[in-house]
Write a structure and sequence with these properties.
The protein is of the alpha/beta class. Helix content is about 20%, strand content about 35%. The chain is built from eight helices and 51 strands. Strands 29, 31, 33, 35, 36, 38, 40, 42, 43, 45, 47, 50 and 51 form a 13-stranded mixed β-sheet that branches. It has a ten-stranded mixed β-sheet with strand order 30-32-34-37-39-41-44-46-48-49, with no helix packed on it. The chain has a four-stranded antiparallel β-sheet with strand order 4-5-9-8, with no helix packed on it. β17 (about 280-285) and β18 (about 290) form a beta hairpin. The longest helix is centred in the C-terminal third of the chain and has 35 residues, at about 570-605. The chain starts with a helix and ends with a strand. Mean pLDDT is about 85; it is low at about 1-5, about 280-285 and about 475-480.
């Protein structure tokens, strides 16, 4: 660049060093956008011609018809370069005025908008929008702006929490954080009133947007301006402000005022005068909860008070943070009607039982019934069902692992799975009794038992057992039994008993027994009673004692045994041998009594018959009177009974 400046400027066309007197000549050149004007060539004055000067350059510019205003400092520099013979074409002696784009309105902050402003504080200056302006090139021609959009203004909504003064200052009318968007200015409240008007929550800062410390007094003044008159918590405010100053940041969610909530009215309710079943389960002595065991269903006596209906209450009004009352919600009335076997007293507020029975409370009614209705399955939703009085009807299924017990009867509309069902009366199962044989599940009834079918079921009935279709037991679960104090009947025309052990006291009737595969099926006639069972248990205990002593001392007389015992053990041996002699004596009595009872039962059971209307397959075993008869070939339409005189099982046709 320095080398170019040392070159002589180009001569203007028409200028000649040999010419006579001539004024200095300068011609001008502009950039393509005509925004910059420079000297394009120069011819110095000759003879008496006028030399180049700043005034001469301005004159020549005017003569050339250019209207640009010269940059006098740059022009003087260009003249100086030309006078010493140096190139001045790079010097811009005049510039055009470029067009100005539009500018949106904007807010000039007068504080830190990360902190709140308070009423009366000027926190910013609003600069209005500026439209685009045209420019002008070095020839004086107007240059239109390229930006034709309309600049955006910033609005101040009526609820913005601030106003714009005549001098353009934004002034707060509420307390809040300044939020500026492209279209508006708004204060985000720092103090927020809950929808129910019962509390005011705030974010408390160490200072405001202008750097002034935030104090409890300023908070109190702002709450008063808002109209908060009740429950201002100045202690909580001072504590939170101290934390804010220590942390240098806001403490959020401070409840600075709290009203008094109303005490809503209590709904009408039913006070029960009897003990309800547990809702979840009972706790054992070990501390474990049995989720199935809910205790007994409630039973009330005839003439006893069951429950009292309490009316709803109106409640107590509260007060919001502005001092206005907050009405309470009145309680809802409870409607309870007297159901079966229930009478009312004291204007319908007291309920009394007419009978002794189970209390059923639900669907707006109180009932007392001798029959407890369970609307669905017996499972974890109901827990075990246990009654101290009356009977129970289950409209679903008794699920595995649960128990049903009642002193009356148990009626099941569904199925009994691996469950325990005990009844003082009958057990009637509309579906089947389906057990796995792997759990201690059973049906025990003081009366009869009836079902559509049984599988692996253990049934103990004081009366008849009546099964519609079949009694089956797989070989793996062999040993489970149906035991009836009365008769056993499989009533279907093609009903069967296959596998397991079936014992009856008064007879058995079925179409088919056993199976062509030879499944062992034991059918027995026996009259067990509590006295007989106790004698059998005593016999086993006595026999075990005798065997234990014989193992130690031998079976000979006591005197021979004592001779073989060392002196130090003789006293112990003498005591054990004496116990053995007593046990042997008692064994004789027990055996005699058992024999007598067996003879008596044989006489009474002589009329009990096992009737097979269809076929008894090989593998069927008939037991009566202590004897067994094995069926080794298919036997059609046969019956079995006991002949007391011959002391044998007799087989006859039908």
């Amino acid at each position: 660049m320095a080398e170019e400046e040392n070159l002589p400027p180009p001569l203007c066309e028409g200028g000649s060093p040999a010419a006579a007197d001539a004024d200095a000549v300068v011609r001008f050149g502009a950039t393509r956008d005509r925004m910059k004007l420079c000297v394009s060539c120069y011819s110095p004055a000759r003879g008496a011609g006028a030399p180049l000067s700043l005034e001469r350059l301005e004159e020549l510019l005017h003569l050339a018809g250019l209207r640009a205003e010269l940059d006098r400092e740059a022009t003087a520099r260009a003249v100086a370069l030309l006078l010493v013979g140096r190139d001045a074409r790079s010097v811009a002696i005049a510039r055009g005025l470029r067009p100005l784009p539009s500018r949106d309105a904007w807010v000039e902050p007068l504080g830190d908008f990360n902190f709140p402003v308070f009423p009366g504080q000027a926190f910013g200056r609003l600069h209005p929008p500026e439209p685009a302006l045209p420019g002008r090139d070095v020839t004086g021609e107007a240059v239109p702006p390229t930006d034709q959009r309309r600049p955006r203004n910033i609005d101040i909504p009526p609820d913005a929490g601030c106003v714009l003064t005549e001098d353009g200052l934004l002034t707060a009318t509420a307390c809040g954080l300044v939020r500026v968007s492209d279209t508006q200015v708004r204060l985000e409240p720092v103090f927020r009133v809950a929808d129910d008007l019962l509390s005011v929550t705030a974010a408390l800062y160490p200072h405001d947007a202008l750097g002034l410390a935030l104090t409890a007094r300023r908070v109190r003044e702002e709450l008063s301006r808002m109209g908060v008159a009740v429950g201002v918590r100045l202690g909580r405010v001072e504590e939170s402000l101290a934390r804010a100053r220590e942390a240098g940041a806001a403490v959020e969610g401070v409840v600075v005022a709290r009203g008094r909530p109303p005490e809503h009215g209590r709904d009408g309710y039913l006070e029960l005068y009897y003990t309800e079943r547990e809702n979840v389960g009972t706790v054992s002595e070990s501390g474990r909860i049995d989720w199935r065991d809910r205790g007994f269903s409630p039973v009330v006596e005839e003439g006893s008070d069951i429950a009292r209906l309490h009316p709803p209450t109106e409640g107590v009004p509260g007060q919001d943070v502005f001092g206005d009352p907050v009405p309470p919600r009145p309680g809802k009335p409870l409607v309870v009607r007297p159901g079966r076997n229930v009478e009312v007293a004291e204007a319908g507020m007291l309920f009394r039982s007419r009978i002794t029975g189970v209390v059923l409370a639900g669907k707006g009614a109180l009932d007392v019934s001798e029959l407890l209705d369970v609307g669905g399955d017996v499972d974890y939703a109901t827990g075990n069902i246990r009654l101290a009085h009356g009977s129970v009807r289950i409209k679903g299924t008794v699920r595995s692992g649960f128990e049903v017990a009642a002193p009356g009867s148990v009626l099941v509309d569904g199925v009994v799975e691996d469950a325990r069902v005990e009844a003082g009366g009958d057990v009637a199962v509309r579906g089947g009794i389906f057990m796995s044989g792997e759990t201690p599940a059973f049906i025990r009834a003081g009366g009869g038992v009836s079902a559509a079918y049984t599988h692996n079921a253990r049934i103990m009935a004081g009366g008849d057992v009546t099964i519609a279709h079949y009694i089956t037991c797989g070989t793996v679960q062999a040993g489970y039994r149906v035991h009836a104090g009365g008769r056993v009947r499989v009533t279907d025309a093609k009903g069967k008993i296959m596998g397991g052990l079936v014992i009856c006291a008064e007879g058995l009737e079925v179409f088919e027994a056993g199976s062509p595969m030879g499944v062992t099926t034991v059918l027995a006639v026996s009259r067990e009673n509590p006295e007989l069972r106790e004698l059998m248990q005593e016999k086993r205990r006595l026999r075990a004692l005798v065997d234990r002593v014989n193992t130690q001392f031998g079976e000979g007389p006591p005197e021979a045994a004592l001779e073989r015992v060392p002196a130090e053990r003789r006293e112990e041996a003498l005591s054990l041998l004496a116990d053995r002699e007593k046990a042997l004596g008692r064994l004789k009595e027990v055996r005699r009594t058992l024999a007598e009872q067996a003879q008596s039962e044989l006489g009474r059971g002589e009329g009990a018959r096992i009737v097979i209307r269809g076929v008894a397959h090989p593998g069927v075993v008939i037991k009566m009177g202590g004897r067994s008869l094995h069926v080794d070939r298919p036997l059609e339409r046969g019956q079995f009974f006991w002949n007391a005189e011959r002391r044998e099982i007799v087989v006859a046709g039908l």
